[in-house]
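step 3/5: co-fold with 2-acetamido-2-deoxy-beta-D-glucopyranose
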Amino acid sequence: MLGAVQLGLLAACVVLFVPMGMAGWHLSRNKVLFFSGALFITLAVGVHLTPYFPSVSNFVTSVSSSTVNVVMDNRASCVSLLHEIAWEVRPGRVFNFELNNNSVNYEKSWSWKRSGSVDSCEFQRLKRHDVSVLLNGSWVVIAGDSQARMFALSLLSLVLDSEGMESVKASLFKRHSDYHTVVNEMGMKLDFMWAPYVTNLTSLVAGLKRNLVYPDLLVVGSGLWHMLHFTNASDYGFSLGVLRSSVTSLLPVSSEFGNDEGVGGSVSVRSPHLFWLGMPTLVNSMLNTKEKREKMTELVCGEYEREVQESGMLRQFGGPLQLLDIGSLSWNCGIRCTDDGMHYDGVVYEAGVQIMLNALLIESHQRL
Ligand SMILES: *[C@@H]1O[C@H](CO)[C@@H](O)[C@H](O)[C@H]1NC(C)=O
Ligand SMILES: *[C@@H]1O[C@H](CO)[C@@H](O)[C@H](O)[C@H]1NC(C)=O
Ligand SMILES: *[C@@H]1O[C@H](CO)[C@@H](O)[C@H](O)[C@H]1NC(C)=O
Ligand SMILES: *[C@@H]1O[C@H](CO)[C@@H](O)[C@H](O)[C@H]1NC(C)=O
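step 4/5: write tokens
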């Protein structure tokens, strides 16, 4: 802890040694005295004014590292910075042996933006070991359409070796089916539930409630199927509203408010971590069928997007689910990151997974 005494000593040293150092740079004795005086005054004024400038005193208190409160405030604002990601998409010519010519291949990478506030959050790209500690013994449920499937794949690729991944890919990508696995080394159970429609998600949540078992981590998201097959944003919005109340009643707090028959006061319910997997940015001209290009227009996408916001489902609008904004991640990665204008390269979902893991880190610290 950096106390007043140490600060005082530090100030004294600066006043003494900085001018002495300058003297070494051939300053006259008068100049040394001048600098010494000026420094002394600056430091004195600084020390006395510090309490009146919140940002300075925040800095001082966070340096002193003893004040949990400052760190906590920081954490809350860090959640809003999780998506501050910068992409680098660089063309690289590689020789394609199959086609016997050079083809352009884009290398894509991402990192959190470099700025003071983002840096101070110390987001980290979690590696296998970190993930196995963080999700040790957890039950993870990921439900939704192909976006959720790719998200699940990305999470698994963080914890499995390449051999494990081969077998996962084979079974996870059987179209339109559920997938269950247990990663023994870390006691993590992962269930992927195929749920192309929001109504499917609502039934899933209802099932969890019925059985009184709750995953530690629940990631859900649907929308593209509804957009293609119903193309009716207000109907989508309606189903989101139903899902919202269903998910809200999963949370233990809701029984306190009495708007739920009570998940049972005797059952100790650990509140699950809830995430909404946002829809990707669609690149209309690249969509692979005429029907998709006609129905999934920019206008319709915007309407669906708005329904998600207006449903009040997301944490930032007072709801229970924290957004994993695949829309902004895919938009920022750009059209080089997708082949069909809808499914993006693994790197986009990988960024989403890392954002989720960092959100979990923030939440778990908060709960300590
Ligand atoms: C490479 O060759 C294939 C087949 O001949 C062709 O379709 C493709 O456009 C070529 N790519 C480049 C970058 O020349
Ligand atoms: C997971 O938790 C168990 C029991 O708490 C512990 O024995 C084990 O070492 C943990 N594994 C990892 C990878 O953290
Ligand atoms: C999802 O919901 C649709 C429409 O409500 C239904 O037809 C379909 O069987 C459901 N699928 C699953 C996997 O539950
Ligand atoms: C859209 O859905 C709403 C609510 O389900 C329904 O009342 C309306 O008729 C639908 N609109 C069209 C054009 O199908």
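step 5/5: annotate
Residues 346-367 form the longest helix (22 residues).
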